């Protein structure tokens, strides 16, 4: 039995874990969080995949690469002359690392502020004890702690191609893709999901010739089809080469780079030689070293921790949230589950509505959506109305010099309740929140159409798309 006893121990300091720990502490519990991420100096780096090798560093590089592309290709349109444009990849990566560090340090500060005890190391189950569960923390020194409640928030790992393990030199996961020390002349990506498109966009802007190999016959199959087609047109125009319906064969990594054998949608055999290969074919739950078998923790055949609708596992007082359980692998989904679990432990009624979780792809143009797609509504036979409005007709978009894309509303044909909102265009990652609020409150498209939006603003496209549901747009 450990002499370090806690009401709640959270395993994992990513978005689901650190938020769960803070909320539990706010509710009056004695809380510990255990996380093993290390920074370059071996110190703690809480924040999980999102902060260290995912959301945060990728957005930093997307921003830097966008600045570079604007300076090289678009500043002249604004009457701004740039001479002797250069690129310092080392400085760019250092800025990215600094952004990551600020987030790491911010989480450690929040732990201190909320009196969350932090352990730097890997936690694993040992056995049940008179408190609840005994856990071992393997860090600089091994420690034993006990918890009445355990929240597992251990996240996910990148899935490798069969026969082509990550070496993070030539064959890269999202981790290695964020640390390429120079611009590859030729770059290939397997998988055209969020990570693939974002990383492809970064290195294309910086000068790489980028080819994306996607196994599915359709581009962004989870996205509304009309929006996906609009996005692909933009990517094609930018020079991002996207091959669909591909079967990837043998992948060879050598001193000169990577050779990829693949078959196109017509069944024709192809070969692609590149400097670097980024693999983004999904992620797998991370339960490595958790030792759940010591206490009988149940996993499904895919390694996902089995939970009910409240994120309870098969074990009493053991919960799991985020990428390690069912549902979308999104940082904000993990955060919402973390808060909900902390509140359920306190006897409250934590709530997560999967139907109003927004999705965003931070390419240029950005892609964002919430709710059902048009193809989903057709498949279930639901009668709906659709309204779209192009950014081409939006004054603020014209002033920005970025009129790509549109906003699209889908509403119930009878009640006008908003069923889905889909966007592709400038800064739609920010615009989508209005749609999330509207859907959470069961708003109709007419409700949005009646709300005054500032002029000139990109958000006017949201209002106009809502007006379009009733075929009464004012500016198109």
Automatic annotation (TrEMBL):
Gene3D superfamilies: 3.30.390.30, FAD/NAD(P)-binding domain (3.50.50.60). Its cofactor is FAD. It holds the Pfam family Pyr_redox_dim. Belongs to the class-I pyridine nucleotide-disulfide oxidoreductase family. Keywords: Cytoplasm, FAD, Flavoprotein, NAD, Oxidoreductase, Redox-active center. It is an enzyme of class 1 (oxidoreductase). It comes from the Bacteria. Residues 6-338 form the FAD/NAD(P)-binding domain. This is Dihydrolipoyl dehydrogenase. The active site is a redox-active disulfide bond. Coiled coil: none annotated. Binds 1 FAD per subunit. The lineage of its organism: Bacteria, Pseudomonadati, Pseudomonadota, Betaproteobacteria, Burkholderiales. GO terms for molecular function: dihydrolipoyl dehydrogenase (NADH) activity. Residues 357-466 form the Pyridine nucleotide-disulphide oxidoreductase dimerisation domain. The gene is lpdA. It comes from Variovorax humicola. It catalyses: N(6)-[(R)-dihydrolipoyl]-L-lysyl-[protein] + NAD(+) = N(6)-[(R)-lipoyl]-L-lysyl-[protein] + NADH + H(+). It is found in: Cytoplasm.
């Amino acid at each position: 039995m450990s002499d370090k006893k806690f009401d709640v121990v959270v395993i994992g300091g990513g978005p689901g874990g650190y938020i769960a720990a803070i909320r539990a502490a706010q509710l009056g519990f004695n809380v510990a969080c255990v996380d093993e991420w290390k920074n370059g100096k071996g110190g703690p780096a809480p924040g999980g995949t999102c902060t260290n090798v995912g959301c945060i560093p990728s957005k930093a590089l997307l921003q830097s690469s966008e600045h570079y592309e604007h300076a090289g290709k678009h500043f002249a349109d604004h009457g701004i002359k740039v001479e002797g444009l250069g690129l310092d990849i080392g400085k760019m990566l250092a800025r990215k690392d600094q952004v990551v560090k600020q987030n790491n340090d911010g989480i450690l500060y929040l732990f201190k502020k909320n009196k969350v005890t932090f352990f730097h190391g890997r936690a694993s189950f040992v056995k049940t004890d008179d408190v609840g569960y005994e856990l071992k923390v393997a860090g600089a020194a091994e420690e034993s702690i006990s918890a009445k409640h355990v929240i597992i928030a251990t996240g996910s790992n990148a899935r490798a191609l069969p026969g082509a393990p990550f070496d993070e030199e030539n064959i890269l996961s999202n981790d290695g893709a964020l640390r390429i020390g120079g611009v590859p002349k030729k770059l290939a990506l397997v998988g055209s999901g969020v990570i693939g498109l974002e990383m492809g966009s970064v290195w294309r802007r910086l000068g790489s010739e980028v080819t994306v190999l996607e196994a599915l016959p359709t581009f962004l199959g989870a996205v509304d089809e009309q929006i996906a087609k609009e996005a692909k047109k933009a990517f094609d125009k930018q020079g991002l080469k996207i091959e669909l319906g591909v079967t990837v064969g043998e992948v060879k990594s050598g001193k000169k780079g990577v050779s990829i054998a693949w078959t196109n949608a017509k069944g024709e055999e192809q070969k692609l030689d590149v400097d670097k290969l980024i693999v983004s074919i999904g992620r797998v739950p991370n339960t490595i070293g958790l030792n759940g078998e010591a206490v009988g923790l149940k996993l499904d055949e895919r390694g996902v921790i089995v939970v009910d609708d409240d994120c309870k596992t098969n074990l009493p007082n053991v919960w799991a949230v985020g990428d390690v359980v069912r549902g979308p692998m999104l940082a904000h989904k993990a955060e919402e589950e973390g808060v909900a679990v902390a509140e359920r432990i306190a006897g409250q009624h934590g709530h997560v509505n999967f139907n109003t979780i927004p999705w965003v792809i931070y390419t240029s143009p950005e892609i964002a959506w919430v709710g059902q797609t048009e193809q989903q509504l057709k498949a279930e036979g639901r009668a709906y109305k659709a309204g779209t409005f192009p950014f081409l007709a939006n004054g603020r978009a014209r002033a920005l010099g970025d009129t790509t894309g549109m906003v699209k509303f889908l509403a119930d044909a009878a009640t006008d309740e908003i069923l889905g909102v889909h966007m592709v265009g400038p800064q739609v990652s920010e615009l989508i929140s209005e749609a999330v609020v509207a859907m959470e409150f069961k708003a109709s498209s007419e409700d949005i159409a009646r709300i005054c939006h500032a002029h000139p603003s990109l958000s006017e496209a949201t209002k106009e798309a809502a007006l379009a549901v009733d075929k009464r747009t004012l500016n198109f």
